Amino acid sequence: MTSTRSSAKSSKKGKLDDMTIKAVAYARGYQEALDFFNVSVEKGLTESQVEAQSKKYGPNELDKTEGKSMIALILEQFDDLMVKILLVAAFISFLLAYFDDENNDEGMLAYVEPLVILLILIANAIVGVWQETNAEAALEALKSLQPAHAHVLRNGIWVTLDSAALVPGDIVEVRVGDKVPADIRLCKLRTTTLRVEQSQLTGESVAVSKDVDAVPDDDEGSCEVQGKTNMLFSSTAVANGCGVGVVVGTGMNTEIGEIQKAVADAAEEDQQTPLQMRLEEFSELLAKIIFVICFVVWIINYKHFFDPVYGSWFRGCVYYFKVAVALAVAAIPEGLPAVITTCLALGTRRMAKRNCIVRRLPSVQTLGCTTVICSDKTGTLTTNEMCAVKFAVPSSASSAGVLNTYNVDGVSYTPVGEIRPSLPPPASNTTGLAEFAKCAAMCNQSRLRYSNEPGDDEDVDDDTETDTENGDATKKPKIRRTGEPTEAAIRVLAEKIGCPDKALNRRCLQSEDRSAKDLQAFSHYWANLCSPVATLEFTRDRKSMSIIVKEKDRSENTLYVKGAPEVILERCTTIMMPDGSVKPLDKKMKNIIFDDYVEKMAGEEALRTLGLAVRKELDPRIAHFKGIDDDSKNGSLLKDPANFIKVEQELTFLGLVGLMDPPRPECRPAIDSCREAGISVVMITGDNRLTAEAIAKDLGIISPGKNAVSLTGREFDQLSDSEKTAVLRRCMDEQGGVFSRTEPRHKQVIVRILRTLGEVTAMTGDGVNDAPALKAADIGIAMGISGTEVAKEASDMVLTDDNFSTIVAAVEEGRSIYSNMKAFIRYLISSNIGEVASIFFTAALGIPESLTPVQLLWVNLVTDGPPATALGFNPPDLDVMKRPPRKSDDKLISGWVFFRYCVIGMYVGLATVGIFIYYFVLDEGAADGHTTVTLWQLMHWDQCHAWGDSFTANHLEGMIPGDACSYFTYGKAKASTFSLTVLVVIEMFNALNALSEDGSLLQLPPWCNPWLCLAVINSIGIHMVILYQPFLASIFGVVPLDIHDWALVLYFSFPVILIDEVMKTFGRIVVDRQIEAMHVHQAELRQEEEYAQKGNTEKME
């Protein structure tokens, strides 16, 4: 009748076609879908129809995507501005080395500079290609979800075929344990009920009942996936029952296909990470600065092009062009790409120790600047293990409609959890609590089992002991369920209540070390007292299921029933008291129980509530029924499911059970930590609104009594673009919100809008339905244990413990990594600015060259390298999780930071040039007995030959005999050694300064990072080797230093510590103001919540 009415009604709607059949089949009668494909459920498609459909729609497979070629991957690694700058510098250096006659004597040493740069870039490209080739497998994981075979009706014969051979119009049968092979419009149920587990697709925490009736929908095609109760979706699993339907969507034209399209689209839209964007901006700035400085240095030396010392103006021009190139080499941090990669790699190792596996290297620091976490509910914020968290049983005052309510601890299927207030086990088998526990255990088709792996179908044998009995706690298997989650939760409740057997209670009640055979000890106790006779399966119309049992101490059968509380109460005529006696249950008492208990549990607390009841006095045909096979005469009443409701009448009420997928216990403090760190948490789930809001309030995502943001997917759809943006901006202002009944496309839209608002978005999830949003977010975080392969492959990082609180630890690690990256960038760039300043001052003053290109390259790659890498081991700043998160558009180098770079860099330049000038002009106490000159003579050294015999200089090693002017060229080795050593020592002090951006060395002393101390010692040691090893000293143009010289080096170097400490003081003032502003905002939000709660309480009173 229902089908006929729906078909008649649908005739007024638009005509079905190839484009609409899959989208609107749920809103039409199944016969209309059969007519569209010209097929019947009795015959199926013919061979000719299959051939035609196959040509039209293609195979039932997801699309295969072409990967990038190796050449394309390699070229991508060089598509970076910093890399291009280095390539140009290497090319120019190579040309100058090749065409300069003076380099002929140096041989291959003249090419050291360009070769080293090229080797760094090649190594970086190899790492990048390796990451790319291991990154993309999400689409392949989607394909693995599709079932291999399907049971199909062809030409009137049921056959098993590869699922790829299915075509729209095929008649398919699915039964318990099957994966659905395509999108199917259900036509017929072969059992009283059919339930499908589709949580990985929709986020619903329980299996969904399916039927054949059309879904009323005035706006066809607008119904969310969860509302299509007559549709079976590809790759979902049948939890129980059996049904037949017609295929309406195959391959990419399925819900799972839509997800693949969304994942592919999100992959194409994949944007640069905040770090990559900031480095790109930094490279552009650096390129402009390098060009300007090099050009200025070249131009200001124009007059020196004509100096006779160069032989001709062209050679003078080329010489100063080489100086400009040396300046560029000094300005470019050659080691920066390698050090960044090393720092990120070190970060991944630390995060792995904290149960977070990083799949994409740049995402390590992205998490550190996260401003909002969009979290799935089921399996992420909750355990995805249904639990009985509350139950209510009649009290001695139940004649007035009063029940005793108990809260039950526990967040998994482990049968351990305190019952509050304390409740002793049943005193005998006939008490009200005993009947309640017996009903929970017997009216139940689930069972508990030990299993070593998620989804492992192999149980630990009931006749064997678990590893826990041998004291091996590390290998303790996890308790899992077989059957419906709600029934498993009720069975666990029965195991927590206990039984009258005191010895069994002592051994098993609240015991964490039950053996496999004792896992259901109390269920077995009740099963030994009564044997099952027949099960009256759940049907959608009567909203209940029941079991007939034969109790050992009774001559007649007993009926135990569970179902929707309003239905159970309606059918009850009596209520069982705590002592086992029975009293009448009138309409007034029913209303009190419903209003005061059912409404509160199901409505206010959003619990999935069930009622339990028993019937002792049965119809004579049922009272002495022995089973379908043994008693076909009396069993005739039970052959028709329509008669089940007649049996379930005149019941005795036993109590209520409140079930929920409980929040993970560690999530609440983790979310509080997120708020303290200025990070908003938004729940996006496919579950219903009441459940989502209850979990969100429990976890502190939204506040009770406050008009917080809570929308369903359909409500969100109906908003305009500006309204959607306003809603999400409000979520950020209130640091929380809830979106329920969502589909994958809703999650993607939410993530995209948040990104347009400038928020750095992290998306967590474990289901197939989460994959597109995981891919679209700045950083996708998948659950490692409960997560599907699709979610893991679409993510940037995977939590190995499925623990939301691990994200908070990862955020702290990410912030620390970003701080460390800024530290070594600050270290490298301030050092390079110092080198640029040194060359600039040298050229501007006209004094001899204090640092050679080979010395600069040595400093940049060798002595700077170890400290820069060691900065990756810096401990987190003391207030790292109290600072507000940085925005995605925050510059890597802000105006203040650039000013600090310049101040430190200018001092480095002044110190290196200053000690060079000091040696020539003022250092009269040096042991080498060198000649001091005036500053004017030093600045006009290139005119020395015009001074004639008026200028004399003591002979030093390397000078040309009889040529006093060679004092400024070959005799400058000691002065150049001073400049190089001051540069090295200052950079070591700079490395210590870089321990913290704003923290004083008095707060974070050098030994907080022992690796940095070792690196500094190593770099000083390497520098001393080239000073005191004659062969290396000749290559680098340096000489040994004595005690007097080292004291002079320290005088010029140590002030950099004092200068940076002053800078840090100002930096701390700015950070303190930011933290104070964030805390004021949070205090205002808390005050609003308190007012809202107070107002809600007064309203209730």
Automatic annotation (TrEMBL):
It comes from the Eukaryota. Belongs to the cation transport ATPase (P-type) (TC 3.A.3) family. The keyword Nucleus does not apply. It is a multi-pass membrane protein. Residues 450-483 are annotated as: Disordered. The chain crosses the membrane at residues 81-99, 111-130, 285-303, 323-346, 824-847, 898-921, 1011-1031, 1043-1059. GO terms for cellular component: membrane. Keywords: ATP-binding, Calcium, Calcium transport, Ion transport, Magnesium, Membrane, Nucleotide-binding, Translocase, Transmembrane, Transmembrane helix, Transport. One of its GO terms (molecular function) is ATP hydrolysis activity. Its EC number is 7.2.2.10. It is found in: Membrane. It comes from Perkinsus olseni (Perkinsus atlanticus). It holds the Pfam family Cation_ATPase_C. SUPFAM superfamilies: Calcium ATPase, transduction domain A, Calcium ATPase, transmembrane domain M, HAD-like, Metal cation-transporting ATPase, ATP-binding domain N. It is an enzyme of class 7 (translocase). Gene3D superfamilies: Calcium-transporting ATPase, cytoplasmic domain N, Calcium-transporting ATPase, cytoplasmic transduction domain A, Calcium-transporting ATPase, transmembrane domain, HAD superfamily/HAD-like. Residues 454-470 have a biased composition (Acidic residues). This is P-type Ca(2+) transporter.
